[in-house]
Amino acid sequence: MYKRQIYTTNTDNAGNFSIEVLGGSYEIVINITLLNGSLVSRTYSTDVNQDTIIETENTIEPVTLFAPTSASADGFTLNWSEYVPTNFADYKLYSHTSSNIDQNTGTLIYTGTSITDINFFVTENLVPSEINYYRVFVSDTTGQIAGSNVIAVTIENINLMQNGSFEENTVAPPSNWGYLPSVGALVDGTGADISISTTEAFEGNQSVRYNPPPVPPGSGAHENSVTQRVLQEDLVPNGRYKVSFYMKYRDIDANNMPNSFRIYFFGIGQSWTSSYVVNTFDNPDVWELHEFEFEMGPDILNDFFLSMELWSGGTTDFIGLWVDNVKMIRISN
Predict the structure, then answer these.
(1) Cα(83)–Cα(93) distance, rounded to whole angstroms?
(2) Is the pLDDT of residue 319 over 80?
(3) Higher pLDDT, residue 73 or 131
(4) Does position 219 have pLDDT exceeding 90, yes or no?
(5) Cα(172)–Cα(170) distance, integer angstroms
(6) Domain residue ranges of the chain, discontinuous segments joined by +
(7) Per-residue pLDDT at 328 exceeds 50
(8) Cα(327)–Cα(333) distance, rounded to whole angstroms?
């Protein structure tokens, strides 16, 4: 009858150890945790013909895994140091949602069989705002394995709006935006306009200003809008997004005709549309944050557009409305 015998020991302060064992066949596992958190592990088999002492075995040095300078949900590159000895076997890169990552708990996402394979572009399981953990294990031809340090990578949100701060130019339309000066009833081609304000800004030096026409009350509705295209390839089917912006207004008087500020996100030829409406104006001269979330449909057939529209009835004392820091970010896949 085979009887399994387990021997355990710890090293001394110098890192040395010894185990006195009986004769027989053994599997020896050596685990070393370095000061930087790296793990060195070696497993091998040996036969002992008589009672003996097994002493310290040399282990291979781990590689160092470097944190990326940035990491978006579109992907990022991980780099690590090159293994120095000549008996190289492979690199294995693991990911995990916890810092407790090893070859058992982690998910293998890359294997490199060349000693110069010291980087990998990560694209899988990247959720905005979440943290992923990564670790590289190197092995040699004798079966020794060493685990690198563990790095934590926070996946950044991507702002799909270009020039949402309106800082890039001083003449309307803003860079990366298109606009309709006045659309609706009683369009006279004058008065209604959109401009770049250099005196009002939530952050930075500029914002976009809506200037509705001074037409008589009850004369009809007027629409001023700026619109930006969002490319089809930048959107994820069923992805969840958040749009946010800061808005400030002055001397808005509805004069029995509704005024509203509306955000539309729509695609040409798509039945799906998301919208957000501000129709209460009771806190003038204060920058207020507005934000809303929506989920994309399962099919994205074309580019989409984000349109910010001011709808105004006939007014006599509408001085202006300003918008700044427009963002659209993906918050989940």
Answers:
(1) 14
(2) no
(3) 131
(4) no
(5) 7
(6) 1-156, 178-332
(7) yes
(8) 18
CB 259 within 8 A of CB 247: no
E-strand stretches of 123-220: 131-140, 144-147, 151-154, 178-184, 193-197, 207-211
DSSP state of 74: T
Point out the least confidently predicted range of 63-67, 70-74, 250-254, 301-305: 250-254
CB-based contacts of 8, cutoff 8 Å, min separation 6? none
Q: Over the chain, what is the mean pLDDT?
A: 79
Q: Given this model, what pLDDT does residue 230 score?
A: 92
Amino acid letter for position 185: A
1-156 topology per CATH: Immunoglobulin-like (2.60.40)
Q: Give the pLDDT confidence score for residue 168 in this predicted structure.
A: 92
User: At a CB cut-off of 8 Å and minimum separation 6, what does 220 contact?
Assistant: 184, 185, 186, 313, 314
pLDDT at 298 over 80: yes
- Residue 134 in tokens: 């990564």
pLDDT of residue 189: 36
Q: Which fold has domain 178-332?
A: Jelly Rolls (2.60.120)
Q: What is the Cα–Cα distance from 292 to 262, expressed in whole angstroms?
A: 12
Structure tokens at 266: 């729509």
Short-list 287, 163, 149, CA closest to 226:
163
Which residues, 6 or more positions from 188, have their beta carbon under 8 angstroms from its beta carbon?
182, 213, 215
Q: Helix (H, G, I), strand (E, B), or coil: what is residue 278?
A: strand
Beta bridge partners of 282: none
Query: Among 251, 246, 176, 178, which residue's Cα sits nearest to residue 211?
Result: 251
Q: What letter does residue 203 receive in the DSSP assignment?
A: S
176 secondary structure, DSSP code: T
Query: Residue 181 in contact with residue 309, Cβ under 8 Å?
Result: no
Min mean pLDDT across 80-84, 209-213, 315-319 is at 315-319
Q: Identify the pLDDT of residue 122.
A: 94
